[in-house]
Specification:
The chain contains 2 helices and 11 strands, in the order ααβββββββββββ. By secondary structure, it is α+β, with helices and mostly antiparallel strands. The protein has one domain. It has a 5-stranded antiparallel sheet with strand order 1-11-5-4-3. A 4-stranded antiparallel sheet has the order 6-10-9-7, with no helix packed on it.
């Protein structure tokens, strides 16, 4: 009985690891990387900033599980990498943030939420915002 108790958690961990590196998941990651490269084509990155004024940004647009883009206009896009996953945004869920100022800042906690059902599909913390300007 003791061997079975130890073996079951190990099997669960091994199953999760194999799903993380599955061919379908790797194909999805490659497709999302291609989409991100296309969205940022013709833009060059600048120096990261900690906060963005709420009134200026539109979005987010999700690329993969941790990359979000916020658009200001045709010439300026901000990119952030999240800690944790707000993966529901890619399926159309809303991003709801807990802000500690009048700006969207690195470290703010965000939730991806299906507004029809009210269920949260993920939680993440926003990273620094890298501005991308059109060349």
């Amino acid at each position: 009985m003791r061997v079975l108790t130890i073996a079951l958690p190990l099997l669960a961990v091994a199953g999760c690891a194999s799903l993380e590196n599955s061919p379908a998941r790797m194909q999805l990651q490659a497709r999302e990387a291609t989409r991100l490269n296309e969205a940022l084509a013709g833009f060059s990155p600048g120096k990261p900033v900690s906060c963005l004024p709420n009134r200026d940004i539109r979005g987010p647009e999700a690329y993969g599980e941790t990359t979000l883009l916020f658009r200001v206009n045709r010439r300026l896009i901000y990119r952030t990498e999240t800690r944790g996953t707000c993966r529901g945004i890619a399926q159309g869920d809303a991003l709801i943030t807990k802000q500690f100022s009048s700006q969207l800042c690195a470290g703010d906690i965000a939730y991806s939420t299906d507004l029809r059902t009210g269920f949260q599909s993920g939680t993440c913390a926003l990273g620094e915002f890298i501005p991308y300007t059109r060349k």
